[in-house]
């Protein structure tokens, strides 16, 4: 089992897509173990995207991510980090494959609907940045026995 962080970005919230996007992760069989709607402070977004701080799009990205509410969620499942990244598709919606979130809902590089952690270390860092340990809930669903066979 792995845990990963997703952010339903301001573009997706403004477009009324929260429910449809979260449903995709539930449909896949993944479990939402923590979730909050928030306006993210500049300092948190800056830490979250620190690796991009020298990129030309950084300032615009921070402005975008602080421009309105987002939904942050912790998601759990077998190989959840890779599975969720695959579900997002390529960064740029124009290149993202049909069937992926960005391929189905987006046509832009910045307004790409959902962020997800890109590896185990990033997932740990991002989960700790957005959630206190007690905000993540360990539980099983009745359906889990019919989603994962072993
Ligand atoms: P995300 O997966 O959250 O990681 C970094 C984000 O920066 C990315 O999604 C996009 O929203 C944004 N981004 C990446 N590349 C570009 C780019 N070339 N121009 C504008 N925004 C970008």
Task: Please supply descriptive tags for the structure shown above.
single chain, 150 residues, alpha+beta, Alpha-Beta Plaits, 4-stranded antiparallel β-sheet, 4 strands, globular, binds adenosine-3',5'-cyclic-monophosphate
Verbal overview:
The protein has 150 residues and is an alpha+beta fold. The protein has a domain at 2-81 and 121-137: Alpha-Beta Plaits (2-Layer Sandwich), CATH 3.30.70.141. It has helices at 10-14, 18-28, 42-48, 58-65, 80-88, 101-105, 120-130; strands at residues 2-8, 31-38, 70-77, 114-116. Strands 2-3-1-4 form a four-stranded antiparallel sheet. The protein is globular. The termini are close together. The mean pLDDT is 98. It binds adenosine-3',5'-cyclic-monophosphate. Adenosine-3',5'-cyclic-monophosphate binds next to loops.
Rg over alpha carbons: 15 Å
CATH superfamily of the domain at 2-81 and 121-137: Nucleoside diphosphate kinase-like domain
User: Biggest β-sheet: count, sense, barrel?
Assistant: 4 strands, antiparallel
Outline type: globular
Mean pLDDT metric: 98
- Portion in beta strands: 15-25%
Structural class: alpha+beta
Q: Termini, distance in Å?
A: 12 Å
């Amino acid at each position: 089992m792995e845990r990963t962080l997703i952010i339903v970005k301001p573009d997706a919230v403004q477009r009324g897509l929260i429910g449809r996007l979260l449903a995709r992760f539930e449909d896949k069989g993944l479990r939402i173990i923590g979730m909050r709607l928030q306006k993210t402070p500049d300092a948190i977004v800056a830490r979250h995207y620190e690796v991009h701080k020298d990129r030309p799009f950084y300032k615009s990205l921070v402005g975008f991510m602080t421009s309105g509410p987002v939904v942050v969620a912790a998601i759990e499942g077998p190989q959840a980090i890779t599975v969720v990244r695959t579900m997002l598709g390529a960064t740029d919606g124009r290149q993202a494959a049909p069937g992926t979130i960005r391929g189905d809902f987006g046509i832009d590089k910045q307004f790409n609907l959902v962020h997800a952690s890109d590896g185990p270390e990033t997932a740990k860092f991002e989960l700790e940045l957005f959630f206190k340990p007690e905000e993540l809930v360990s539980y099983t669903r009745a359906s889990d026995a019919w989603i994962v066979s072993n």
